[in-house]
Amino acid sequence: MSRDSDPMKWYHGSLSREAADDLLKQGYEDGTFLVRESSTAAGDFVLSLLCQEEVCHYQVRRHGGEDAFFSIDDKVQTKILHGLDTLVDYYQQAANGLPTKLTVPLIRDPPPHNTRSHGVTNLLHRATAKNESKVVFELLKCGYRNFDAKNQDGQTALHLAALYSDEDILKHLLNAKVQVNSSDSFGCQPLHYAARSKPASFIRTLIAAQANVQGRNIENGYVPLHEAAKHGNLEAVQELLLAEAPPLPRTSSGEFPFDLAKEAGQTSVEEFLMNYKLPPASTTREQWYHGTLTRDEAVAILKKHAQELLASQPQLDTSGCFLVRYSESPAASGLVLTLLSSDQMVKNFRISQADLYQNGVKLQSGGSKFLYIDDGPYWPSLEHLISHFMRFSYGLPVSLKFPVPPQPKPEVPSFATIPRSSVKPRTTPPATPPTPVSPHAHSPHHHGHPHVPALTIAKKKQKENSSSMFNTLRLTSPKKALFDMNSLRKSKSKGKRSESESSVSGSLARTEQELQAAAPMLKSLSFSTEFSTFNADGGLVVAPASGELYNVPRNNTPIEMDLPPIAQKTEAEVEYFTKSDVAIERERAVQSGGVNGYQPTVDVLSVWDQQMIKPPAAARLNSLISTGSTESEMASYLQRKCSGTPTTPTSSALEAAKLRFFIEPENLVLESEIGHGEFGSVHSGWLMRKSAASGEETRVEVAIKMLSDEHSNKQEFLREASVMMRLEHKCIVRLIGISKGEMLMMVQELAPLGSMLQYILDHGAEISANSELKVWASQVACGMHYLESQHFVHRDLAARNILLTARQQAKISDFGMSRSLRPGSTEYQFTQGGRWPIRWYAPESFNLGIFSHASDVWSFGVTIWEMFALGAPPYGEISNVDAIKLVDSGERLPQPSLCPAYIYAVMQSCWKERPKDRPTFAYLMEFFARDPDYQNLPELVQTVHI
Ligand SMILES: Nc1ncnc2c1ncn2[C@@H]1O[C@H](COP(=O)(O)OP(=O)(O)OP(=O)(O)O)[C@@H](O)[C@H]1O
């Protein structure tokens, strides 16, 4: 960035819209711009931009509180950026969805300090970094106004104080009311830095000034406790825990503070954390736990409770009313927190469960798991999780304020005959009066002991609860019904019930007969979404508006046709295509010499040599291969290997890496056939492996794809393998290796649920448009985004080529048609015809043979259409030629009845005529992960390795 020569003087303060229009229309060039304050929304700004003699105004929305995160409100490409300066810079590099990129700033002032991510080092920064208390004091006293100015690293004086100075300066700055929780360019807030090395009193002072003990570094997910643990600052660890910092927060890569302490050899901190005694929770589940409730029941109860609160206190802000329930809906089976947010919308948050490991050893015994919401901290009990969110709202739209108690439970009769709540809604009003619960009032350990040494308090707490947090669950949660819901159901179906179960879940009790009688009704209740309804047999009924039965076709075989060779494309056609944001970012990285740039070499040895000189932190085979060779090179290597022709010796390490992909046929056990494709049959089977150290044999379940006719399409088969070898992503089916016995075999990760298309055809009635379909769509977009980052176009994206490894995990497969793009190019042109799945193809693909990430986006649109049409074939019964004509004439696939309008709108945007008008995979991934109902759907979407 040319910050020195460009002093960011494009800020025009409270200039009105009309005045901005007048200014910009004075005959400047396209892309001339200014930024001004928004007159409609405090804290927001407006970007006014001249394009083709018109002035466009874009709202620049502020996200979060103290930190300066902004985005332009734009339908297709919303990118949240840190600082107005970064945002302007981003749109100066490329238009990124605007009609033109920003070119010439209309000069006036630099933007306010608190809106920037960067600045220049000033006097206050210098004095603070040198720990010159007197100078700092004098500067603040004489009315120096730039308290919150940032330096080149986005650090304020408070960041520098937390790093370099003593408490005196800290207090001077805090007295001057500086911002306490702003993040610098490394994603750190002042408390992150203080936690590294400062004494307890320093930390305490910062926390007393409202420093956020949960402040999360947006780069790596660290909270201050991670920093303290990693740097072995025991005092800070204790002080943070006293301030109710959660003891088990996770970094973006899933590390807990004790992991970081261990990695850094900070033994005393590691031991302290492992033995930390979590104080008892400040709330009990009698206040808010309702057992099994459907979403509709929960909403009704919550709204009713809020109304009652308002009736007694008309001015009360009822946001924060909440309850916890057990959902049996397949979309959200498990614990759900239902909450009234400040816009009076009811939000549902899935409470997930997980085991916790240290050094591969499970820390929780007895089958009980830790609980968490999204990427939030782990808690050993539901009570702890809820008391945490009653104290901190972080991660939720509001903190939990008003627990909605369950109705008193009817007495449990000696035999179980009470119908479940969803079958017969309760009518009695809640018995408990609506008392707001202050967690502080209940909490024996809220922050308020600045004068007491941390260890003394820790010892005191030890007496209150003599267990470490790693077995608290068993001690603090005697009613373990919540965690036994599954076993409860199982035991019910066997007609058995334990005493402890019946004592806490009387309202759920039912006999086997009742269960069976209620089954159709349960199905219809729990499966209904806002998009669909189901009849008593579980069959799908269309939305009442259309009133006709949706016929699910059964013949969805890929549609292919032979095409003649295609003419070379013209300059104009090249111009026609635009770069996706991934490509732009990549190019920018290359220009700035970044390491993420594409390596335009095919010379394996030279790349390997470079890597030997400067080995990457975690050198993976994947990167070795992807930077070192094209897929055709790999294919010919595999070909030589498979036919026994000696391969040219390269580096032995590279050879070893490649060899890892070869599996001896005797290590494979073939089982039943699970599918059949172009190359031949696909079998499930086992890969046997022997541990080199122990000699112990393990076996992994795999899918084995066999090449039926050895000679006809071997090259293509190997090409597919060589493409897959270079990919490693949670949303892409993994190639484990290839093997050459009597036949050539590709060994892949097994997707036990098979192809998504078949699954939808078989289980259409059980699939929720609002859950599975969105999760799958997001996962497919996520995998495609990764593929794009690896410079591949897939060319055969379709529901039949998505496999399901679990009900909540879709993976892209079938890379037989994939091609890698040449360095610097964003599309691939086929001059040869072939058998193409025309109905999934964009017009520029079937007309000109041009394939790009944007043409994959078109196919993605067709794929999600197939999903929401429950497996129907695109364009129905008409011929391929008619389908092409239809698309060319501007017609598009119709809105499936299951598909809500806002999703259909996205499908249509994928089918925009001009490739550059289509959304990117990054956008699509985020779009489907953002669910209006289940806020934490993104957790289900695997986003590793992007
Ligand atoms: N890794 C896997 N795990 C589980 N089932 C698989 C796996 N790979 C393939 N299958 C099953 O085998 C079927 C055929 O797969 P395959 O990839 O060979 O053929 P295809 O999808 O018809 O594509 P093509 O013929 O273009 O290769 C799939 O539809 C799927 O049901």
From TrEMBL:
Pfam families: Ank, Ank_2, PK_Tyr_Ser-Thr, SH2. Its EC number is 2.7.10.2. The keyword Nucleotide-binding applies. ANK repeats lie at residues 153-185, 186-218, 220-241. It is an enzyme of class 2 (transferase). Residues 427-437 have a biased composition (Pro residues). Residues 10-106, 288-404 form the SH2 domain. The keyword Ribosomal protein does not apply. Keywords: ANK repeat, ATP-binding, Kinase, Nucleotide-binding, Phosphoprotein, SH2 domain, Transferase, Tyrosine-protein kinase. Residues 668-928 form the Protein kinase domain. It catalyses: L-tyrosyl-[protein] + ATP = O-phospho-L-tyrosyl-[protein] + ADP + H(+). Belongs to the protein kinase superfamily. Tyr protein kinase family. This is Tyrosine-protein kinase.
